[in-house]
Amino acid sequence: MRGRLLRKHVNEAVEFALESFCGTRGPAPSDEALWANFAWRFGYGELLACVEQGRSEMNCHRRPVPPSERPRILQNILREFWNKRFPKKGGV
C-alpha cells in the first residue's frame, strides 16, 4: 500500500516536470527516465522544489523560453543539486 502511494507521488511529480518543461518521454536517456531517477533517489518533494525553481526562472526571462530549451533549465537545476550533494573530489 505504502509503495503504491509513493509510486503515485513520484509519477505525478515526474508528469508535472514533463508538462512544465516539455520533456521527452520513454526509456533512458529520456527526460522522463532521468527525472524519475532523481525523484526516486532524492524524493519527489525535491523534484517538485526544483521544478518550481525552474518555472520561476523561466518566468524571469524577458522572452518566452522555447519548448526545446526548457528541459535544459531543469537539468541544470538538478545537476547543481546533485553536485552539492555529491561534490567532486580532487578540487578540480
Report on the structure:
The radius of gyration is 14 Å and the shape is globular. Helix 1 packs parallel to helix 3 and helix 3 packs across helix 4. It contains four helices and no strands. The chain is an all-alpha fold.
Compact summary:
This protein has 92 residues and is an all-alpha fold.
Annotation keywords:
single chain; 92 residues; mainly alpha; 4 helices
Provide the helix percentage: over 70%
Chain-averaged pLDDT: 93
Structural class: mainly alpha
Poorly predicted segments: none
Number of helical elements: 4
Distance between the termini: 45 Å
Sheet having the most strands? none
* Number of beta strands: 0
Shape: globular
Question: Approximately how much beta-strand content do the residues carry?
Answer: under 5%
Rounded to an integer in angstroms, the radius of gyration calculated over CA atoms is 14 Å
Order of helices and strands: HHHH
Secondary structure layout plus pairing:
Blueprint (H helix, E strand, L loop, with lengths): L1 H20 L9 H12 L1 H17 L9 H16 L7
